[in-house]
Design brief:
This protein has helices at residues 4-13, 18-27, 34-41, 56-69, 77-95, 100-104, 111-119, 122-144. It has 146 residues and is an all-alpha fold. Helix 1 (4-13) packs antiparallel against helix 2 and helix 2 (18-27) packs parallel to helix 4.
């Protein structure tokens, strides 16, 4: 499949976490295997190891941005930060935050909050839209920042 947005949506629907879904969808474009991409992104779901911090879809997108537009030298890090900051600002313009716990309305860092989020089906209602938005935004962002 060549459409990374659709691929991200499908991977999330298959049970991968938000970070894995977005990062792996764009990894092939940079020559990274899906298996390795899934392994790299696996700890970043639900706000960094299910802590409710930065949304996994955002971290997945930023990792993908890094492998496609990032630097391998200290001299290029400011440009990488600039691009990442622009991506974050665009995401925040839609959702007002990049924090998982604020996006979903639950603190998933504890068993009670995680169970409440599961019971409310938040991972099936809000999260797919966030994954799709992050992937679509990244696709647009990469096209406009060669």
């Amino acid at each position: 499949m060549n459409d990374p947005v659709q691929l991200a949506k499908e991977r999330f629907a298959q049970g991968l976490n938000c970070s894995q879904a977005v990062f792996a969808a764009f990894a092939a474009q940079a020559g990274l295997s899906e298996k390795v991409a899934l392994q790299i992104a696996s700890p970043f779901g639900a706000g960094l190891a299910r802590q409710g911090n930065v949304c996994g879809a955002v971290t997945g997108a930023l990792m993908a941005l890094g492998i496609q537009r990032g630097t391998d030298s200290p001299q290029g890090k400011e440009e990488t930060y600039r691009l990442a900051q622009q991506f974050v600002a665009r995401f925040k313009a839609t959702y007002g935050t990049i924090l998982c716990k604020d996006l979903i309305g639950y603190d998933v860092s504890n068993a009670e909050g995680l169970q409440a989020a599961r019971d409310s089906r938040i991972f099936a209602t809000i999260c797919p839209a966030v994954v799709e938005h992050a992937a679509r935004l990244l696709e647009e962002f990469l096209a406009n920042n060669p």
